[in-house]
Design brief:
Elements: H1 4-23, H2 32-51, H3 53-81, H4 104-107, H5 109-124, H6 127-143, H7 147-159, H8 163-166, H9 177-189, H10 193-203, H11 210-232, H12 237-240, H13 256-292, H14 305-319, H15 324-351, H16 359-369, H17 375-388, H18 393-419
Length: 427
C-alpha cells in the first residue's frame, strides 16, 4: 500500500535529480528518456528481486552462499589468528561483552582476501567473464553505451572502481570526456564483490536478509550512476557517433593455482589499503573532534564532526524516506560515509541501537551507504587513472570531485527508489 512515507521518497528522487541538474555542464540537455529508463530499471529490479517468488528464492540461495563464504573466511581467519578472529569456542577468557568479538582486521579483511582469490578463479574459468559480458550487453541495449564503457561499467559492479576500467585500459584514451566521467561516477556508485561480502559480515546480526539487500544495492546503483553522470556531463554526440569502441584486453592467468595466488595478492593489497585508509581518516576525525572540543557545548552536548554532518545531511536522509525522528542519526551516517568511507559508516550502522533507527530506516540507509563515494576514493581514482590513462590526468583531476558527488547521489537515488516501495515487499 502506498503511504505518505513512500511519497516522501518520491520527493527524494526529485531532489537528487535537481541537484545533479544544478551541477550539469549543459542544463539544456537533460536526458529525460535515460533518467526515466534508469528509474524504471531500478524499480523493476527491486520488485523482481524481492517480489517475484522464484527470483526471491534464487536471491535467497545466493544470499546463503554469501553468508557461507563469510563463514568459511572466518574459519580460515580463526585457523591463523585463533580467538582474535572471534571464534566463540576458542575464547580463553570469560566474555562480558559479546560484541567485542567483532574485530574489523580479523573479521572483515580476511573476507576480502578470500573473495578476491575466488573472483580471480571464476574469471580464469570464464564464469565471471560471461556474467560481466552479459551485464555489459544490458548496459549497451538499455542505456546506449558503447562497447568499452558498457563492459567497464558492468565489470565495476563486480570488480571495483578501478578494476573495472582496467579491462578496457587500451581504449581509455579514445573515450569521450562524458564516457570517462561516467566510468568514474559509476565506480563510486557501486562496490566490488569482495566488499559486498564484507558488508554482509558487518550487517548480518542487525539487518534481516542483509546479503540480498547489499547485493541489490550495488546492482541498482549502476544504472543510477549512468543516468546521473549523463545529466552532469552530457554525452558527446560527435565522438560517440563515430561508432562503437570494441572492448578487449583482460586479466589472464596461467592456471587455476596462478589465479588463486594472484587474486590473493590483489586482495592483500586491497586489504592493506582499506586498513590504512580507515586508520588515517578515523585518526584525522578524532583529531578534528579534539580541536572542536574547545568550543562551548551546543544543545547540552559537545560539538563534533559527526553532529555537524548529521545536521547537514538530515534533510537529505529524510527525503529518502527516513522518518524525521531518525533523520539526524541517518544524516550522520551519510556524512560518515563521505568523510570516513562507507566501511566506517556500515560499522556505525551495525552498532546503532534499535531505538535510534527503525527497521525500515535501516533498510533505506543500507542502500544509501552502499557505494565508494567518499573523499578517500577521490585519491584512489586520481592515482588509478593516472596509471591507466596518464594522458588524461588533467581531465580526471578536473572531474573527480563531481564524480564523487554523483556517486554519492546515485546511492541516495537507489535508497529513494527502495523507500518508495511498500515496506511489506521486504518483509
Amino acid at each position: 500500500m502506498f503511504r505518505g512515507e513512500n511519497a516522501q521518497s518520491l520527493f527524494g528522487m526529485a531532489l537528487v535529480l535537481a541537484l545533479c541538474w544544478l551541477m550539469s555542464e549543459d542544463r539544456r540537455r537533460f536526458p529525460w528518456k535515460l533518467v526515466a529508463g534508469a528509474l524504471a530499471v531500478q524499480a523493476l529490479l527491486v520488485l523482481a528481486l524481492f517480489g517475484v517468488p522464484r527470483v526471491r528464492q534464487a536471491v535467497a540461495f545466493v544470499s546463503q552462499g554469501v553468508e557461507g563464504l563469510a563463514a568459511s573466511s572466518q574459519a580460515g581467519a580463526a585457523f591463523v589468528f585463533g580467538f582474535l578472529a572471534g571464534a566463540p569456542d576458542q575464547q580463553p577468557y570469560p566474555l562480558s561483552n559479546q560484541g567485542a568479538l567483532f574485530v574489523f582486521a580479523f573479521r572483515v579483511l580476511p573476507v576480502v582476501l578470500v573473495v578476491c582469490a575466488l573472483a580471480a578463479l571464476l574469471w580464469h574459468w570464464r564464469i565471471l567473464r560471461w556474467i560481466t559480458q552479459g551485464f555489459g550487453l544490458v548496459f549497451r541495449r538499455l542505456f546506449g553505451l558503447r562497447g568499452a564503457p558498457a563492459l567497464a561499467t558492468a565489470a565495476t559492479v563486480f570488480m571495483g572502481q578501478i578494476e573495472g576500467p582496467i579491462f578496457v585500459r587500451n581504449y581509455l584514451d579514445s573515450l569521450s570526456r562524458s564516457e570517462l566521467f561516467l566510468l568514474m561516477a559509476v565506480g563510486m556508485s557501486c562496490v566490488s564483490g569482495s566488499t559486498m561480502v564484507a558488508y554482509v559480515t558487518i550487517l548480518h546480526d542487525m539487518l534481516p536478509n542483509a546479503a540480498a539487500h547489499v547485493m541489490t544495492a550495488s546492482i541498482i546503483s549502476a544504472p543510477a550512476g549512468v543516468a546521473l553522470a549523463r545529466i552532469v556531463v552530457p554525452r558527446d554526440l560527435v565522438i560517440e557517433a563515430q561508432g562503437d569502441v570494441s572492448p578487449s584486453g583482460s586479466k589472464t592467468y596461467d592456471s587455476s593455482v596462478d589465479a588463486v595466488m594472484k587474486g590473493t595478492l590483489d586482495g592483500l593489497q586491497i586489504s592493506f589499503n582499506m586498513a590504512a585508509t580507515l586508520i588515517v581518516f578515523v585518526a584525522l576525525t578524532a583529531l578534528l573532534n579534539g580541536l572542536l572540543a574547545g568550543f562551548p557545548n551546543v544543545g547540552g552536548a559537545p560539538v563534533t564532526l559527526e553532529r555537524g554532518l548529521g545536521l547537514l545531511f538530515a534533510p537529505l536522509a529524510w527525503s529518502l524516506g527516513v522518518p524525521w525522528r531518525d533523520a539526524s542519526a541517518a544524516g550522520t551516517l551519510l556524512g560518515v560515509k563521505m568523510v570516513l568511507t562507507e566501511f566506517t559508516a556500515f560499522i556505525r550502522l551495525g552498532a546503532t541501537p534499535a531505538a535510534e533507527l527503525a527497521p525500515r530506516s535501516r533498510v533505506i540507509m543500507t542502500y544509501a551507504l552502499c557505494g565508494y563515494a567518499n573523499i578517500a576514493s577521490v585519491g584512489i581514482n586520481v592515482a588509478g587513472f593516472n596509471v591507466l590513462a596518464p594522458n588524461r590526468r588533467s581531465e580526471v583531476i578536473g572531474m573527480v570531485w563531481k564524480a564523487m558527488a554523483v556517486g554519492f547521489l546515485a546511492t541516495c537515488l537507489g535508497a529513494a527508489v527502495v523507500g518508495a516501495m511498500p515496506a511489506a515487499l521486504f518483509g
